[in-house]
Structures are given as C-alpha cells and as structure tokens.
C-alpha cells in the first residue's frame, strides 16, 4: 500500500498514515465485543449437537414405543380411537420431518461448534425451531391432555406406562455404570 510521497508537504504523509492506522485500530477495537457472541455461537452449536441426538431423538423413540401405543390400546373404539390414531400419525410424521431437518443442519453446526466458518442454512435452522415449537405446542395442548384422560380411566394403564418408562430409563442408566 505504497502511496506517492507529497514532497511539497511531507507532514501530510504522516497524518495520512495515522488516519489509516486509526481506522484499523478502530476496527480492532470492535473485536472484544465480537468475541463473546462468537464463543456463545460455538457453545450453542456444541451443546445442540450433543442434546439433539441424545435427548430429542430418544424422546421421539420413547413416545412412539411407549406413549402412543399405550394411548391407542386404551382408547375407546370408534370416534376416540380414530382421533387418537390421527393425532399419533401427525405427531409421528412431525418427528420424522424434524429429524430430517436436523440431519441436514447437523453438517453445518459441526464447524460452528469448532469455531470455524460455515455454510449454516439459517432458514432451515429457523424452520426447525418453528416446526418443533408448533409440534410441542400441539402435543402439549391437544394430545397429552387427551392421553391423560384416556390413560387415567384405568390406573393400571397409567401405572403400566410409568413402569415401562422406568424400566427403559433404568436400563439406560445401568448401561453407563
């Protein structure tokens, strides 16, 4: 970045040089404020990579193996059974959709977790958050209250689900001991 020297006003060269240095220092002064968000991005990506597969995929599996079959088995034949089956179908399809979204996002999150630049698809990430938020809201507002009514009619059905869940979790904990 050599600029011609003004031999008629040599002090301007020093002043011009200082202006460039001060501009660079001003940019450098922004760095501390950017380090914390970058570190937070790495942390969120790393924790999400660990959490999603361990918790969310496992949660879906548990619902599909334990909760959904228990509610279907305990539902009254006819309208209630059809409603439950429709809800279970919707929730299961949403599980697959969210899992597929995650698998696509996972590739972009791994470099972020390591502090590298990435081609993270922000729109897909936002879609995942939106879709799962809607999924959870529907399940909480519609399916789980109905499941509680259906399973609550017979305390043995609720107890059986509780025991089944306990056994699955006990096996998982014992596998790590």
Describe this structure in words.
The chain is an all-alpha fold. It has one domain: Up-down Bundle (Four Helix Bundle (Hemerythrin (Met), subunit A)), CATH 1.20.120. The protein has 5 helices and no strands. α2 runs antiparallel to α3 and α2 packs across α5. Residues 173-177 have low confidence and may be disordered.
Helix proportion: over 70%
Number of helices: 5
First-to-last CA distance: 63 Å
Rg computed from alpha carbons, rounded to a whole number of angstroms: 28 Å
Order of helices and strands: HHHHH
Name the overall outline: rod-shaped
**What class would the helix/strand composition place it in?**
mainly alpha
CATH topology: Four Helix Bundle (Hemerythrin (Met), subunit A)
CATH architectural category: Up-down Bundle
Number of strands: 0
> Total domains, how many?
1
List the uncertain runs. Answer: 173-177
Average pLDDT metric: 85
Provide the CATH top-level class: Mainly Alpha
Pick out its properties.
mainly alpha, 0% strand, 177 residues
Please give a quick description of this structure.
The chain has 177 residues and is mainly α. Helices cover 86% and strands 0% of the residues. Helix 2 packs antiparallel against helix 3 and helix 3 packs antiparallel against helix 4.
């Amino acid at each position: 970045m050599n600029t011609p020297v003004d031999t008629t006003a040599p002090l301007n060269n020093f002043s011009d040089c200082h202006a460039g240095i001060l501009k660079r220092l001003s940019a450098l002064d922004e760095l501390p404020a950017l380090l914390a968000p970058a570190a937070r991005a790495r942390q969120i990506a790393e924790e999400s990579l660990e959490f999603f597969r361990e918790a969310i995929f496992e949660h879906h599996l548990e619902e599909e193996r334990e909760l959904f079959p228990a509610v279907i088995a305990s539902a009254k034949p006819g309208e209630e059974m059809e409603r439950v089956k429709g809800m279970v179908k919707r929730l299961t399809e949403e599980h697959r959709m969210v899992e597929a979204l995650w698998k696509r996002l996972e590739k972009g999150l791994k470099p972020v977790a390591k502090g590298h630049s990435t081609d993270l698809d922000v729109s897909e990430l936002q879609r995942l958050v939106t879709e799962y938020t809607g999924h959870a809201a529907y399940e909480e507002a519609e399916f789980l209250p109905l499941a509680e009514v259906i399973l609550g009619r017979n305390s043995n059905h609720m107890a059986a689900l509780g025991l089944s869940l306990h056994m699955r979790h006990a096996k998982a904990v014992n596998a790590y001991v």
